Amino acid sequence: MNWEKYYDKGVDLILTYGPKLVGAILVWIIGGIIIKTLVKSFEKILNKREIDPSLKPFLKGMVAALLKVMLVISVLGMLGIEMTSFVAILGAAGLAVGMALSGTLQNFAGGVMILIFKPFKNGDLVEAQGHTGIVSEIQIFNTILKTLDNKTIIIPNGGLSTSSMVNYSTEDTRRVDWTFGIGYGDKTGNAKEVLTRLMAEDNRILNAPEEPFVAVSELGDSSVNFAVRAWVKAEDYWGVYFDMNEKVYNTFDEKGLNIPYPQMDVHVHKN
User: Is residue 42 part of a domain?
Assistant: First the structure.
C-alpha cells in the first residue's frame, strides 16, 4: 500500500477542511453563548412589559429556536455544505403549511397580539364581534366571554384582534345618559328642577369630570324631551341608571308632570 499517498491526502484534507472545522466549532460555541445571552435579555424585556405568563415560554422558545436555526445554517455553510436548496425546500414547506393552516395561524397571531398589547383583560366588560360579555379567559386561539345572562361565547382571536371593540371597563368612570319627556303644557322649569334635585340627592353621582347636566333637547311629536347626563363610577352605572328611571317616574307623577306616550286621534266623518 502506498502509505505516503494516503498520508499526503490526509494532510491535504486537514489543511483544507481543518481550519473550516475549527472555525465552525468556534462559531457554534460562541454562537450558543450569544444565543443564551440574547434569550435571557429577551426574557427580561418580557418581564418588564408584564406579558401574560402563558405567552412567555412560547415567545422565549420561538426566539431561541429561530436563532438556533440561523446558527446551524451558518455553521453548515462554513463547512462548505450548500444550503441554498435546503433553505428553498424549507421555505416551500413553510408556505404550504401556512396556506393549509391560514385560519388557525391567523387566530394564533391574533392571540399573540392580544396577549402582548392587552386591549382587554380577564374581568373586563367588552362588546366585540356582535357580542357583549365579561372576559372569562384569553387563550392563544380564542377568547371566552360570559354574557350577563351567563352564556358562554367563544370568539376566535383572528377577527377579535383586527376589528373594532368597545371595552367598558377601561376607565374608572362612565357617563350615564337619559332622555325624559313631559307633555306639552307642563312647565319645563318644574321638570328641570325635579331632575336636578334627584341627581343631587344621589351620592353615587359625581361632580367631576363634569357636573350633572339637564337641558331641553327636543320638541318631539308628543313630548318635550330633556337630555340628562351624569358621571358615575363604572361599577355604579346600571344601579344609577335604573334607580333614576324609577325615581323620575314616581316624582313626575307627584309633581303633576305628565309623561306622554304616542297617541293618535281618529276622526270619523258621517256622510
Answer: yes
CATH number at residue 222: 3.30.70.100
CATH number at residue 156: 2.30.30.60
**Whether the Cβ atoms of residue 250 and residue 262 lie closer than 8 Å to each other:** no
Contact 260/222 with Cβ under 8 angstroms? yes
Question: Within this chain, do residues 190 and 139 fall inside the same structural domain, yes or no?
Answer: no
At 133-187, the pLDDT tens digits run 999 988 888 899 999 899 999 999 988 888 899 999 999 999 999 999 999 989 9
Q: Is 146 exposed, middle or buried (0-12, 13-18, 19+ CB in 10 A)?
A: middle
pTM of the model: 0.62
Burial track 44-82 (b if 16+ CB lie within 10 A, e otherwise): eebeeeebbeebeeebbeebbeebeeebeeebeebeeee
